[in-house]
Design goal:
It is a single chain. By secondary structure, the protein is an alpha/beta fold. The protein contains twelve helices and five strands. A five-stranded parallel β-sheet has the order 3-2-1-4-5, with helices on both faces. Helix 3 packs across helix 5. The radius of gyration is 18 Å and the shape is globular. The model has no long low-confidence stretch (mean pLDDT 94).
Length: 230
C-alpha cells in the first residue's frame, strides 16, 4: 500500500515512520544465525530445526511466548536446548549460553547503519520516527543499545504490552502512544503478514526485502531522499 507525505512540516500532524527492529534495523536474520554459529558451533540448519520443534511443542509461533512476556527467556531457551539435543544429539552445546541467550545472540551485532541513518534523516526532516517491534523483555538492554544513537521519538515493544504484530491491537496501541491517526503511520517490516495487518488498519507499509529496496520505497513515500542512486 502506498501513500505520500511530501512535506512533513505542513502535514496536519507529523507523520510517524515506524521501523521494525529484527530484520530491519538489525542485520538480516540469516546473518544473525551465521553469527550465532561462529559463537557456538550450532549451524543455522540445526537452529531452525530446533526452533520448529519448539513451535510444534508450544502450539503457537515459536517466539510468541517470549515476545508477549508470558514465558521467561531462560525457560524458552531451555526448551530450545532440549529440542536441539533431541533432533541433533551429536551437537556440542558447551559454547552456547542458554541462560543468557539474548546476550550471546546480540554480542558483536551492530545496527544496519543505512537504516539508522534514514531514521535520523527523517527525524531531521520533521517526521516522527518510532520502533514497533515484537521483542523480548530480557533482550531489551542489548538491542536498545544497538540503536541508542538514533533519535527515535517513540517505542512500542510487544513484551511490554502483551500484544504483538500482526494482532490489530498493537497498531491501535502504537497510534494511541504516538497520538497519531492511522493514515499518518508508515511501517517498515520484513514480514509480509505484519505489513498486511498494518495496511488493514489503514497504515502505509514498506515490505522490507533488502536495505536499498526499502529505502527507495520509503523515499518515494516520504519525499526524502534516503538512498544513494543508482
Amino acid at each position: 500500500m502506498s501513500a505520500a507525505f511530501p512535506a512533513a512540516a505542513g502535514h496536519r500532524s507529523a507523520p510517524t515512520v515506524w521501523f521494525d527492529f529484527g530484520g530491519v534495523l538489525s542485520p538480516p536474520l540469516p546473518e544473525l544465525f551465521r553469527s550465532f554459529e561462529k559463537k557456538t558451533g550450532i549451524t543455522p540448519e540445526q537452529m531452525y530445526d530446533a526452533l520448529a520443534e519448539v513451535e510444534r511443542e508450544l502450539g503457537v509461533p515459536v517466539l510468541e511466548p517470549i515476545e508477549l512476556g508470558t514465558m521467561p527467556e531462560t525457560e524458552w531457551a531451555a526448551l530450545l536446548s532440549a529440542a536441539l539435543r533431541h533432533r541433533w544429539p551429536e551437537v556440542d552445546q558447551s559454547r552456547a549460553d542458554w541462560r543468557h541467550f539474548g546476550r550471546q545472540w546480540f554480542d558483536g551485532i551492530t545496527v544496519d547503519e543505512d537504516m539508522a541513518a534514514a531514521a535520523g534523516l527523517l527525524h531531521q526532516e520533521g517526521f516522527r520516527v518510532g520502533v514497533l517491534s515484537n521483542n523480548v523483555r530480557e533482550w531489551g538492554p542489548y538491542w536498545k543499545k544497538m540503536i541508542g544513537s538514533v533519535p527515535f521519538d517513540v517505542m512500542v515493544d510487544s513484551c511490554d504490552h502483551g500484544v504483538r504484530k500482526p494482532q490489530p491491537e498493537i497498531y491501535e496501541l502504537a497510534e494511541r502512544t504516538a497520538r497519531v491517526a492511522a493514515d499518518d503511520c508508515v511501517l517498515i517490516d520484513d514480514l509480509a503478514e505484519n505489513c498486511a495487518a498494518a495496511e488493514a488498519a489503514g497504515w502505509t507499509t514498506v515490505h522490507f526485502r533488502d536495505t536499498r529496496q526499502a529505502l527507495l520505497e520509503l523515499s518515494a513515500i516520504t519525499g526524502v531522499r534516503l538512498c544513494r542512486l543508482p
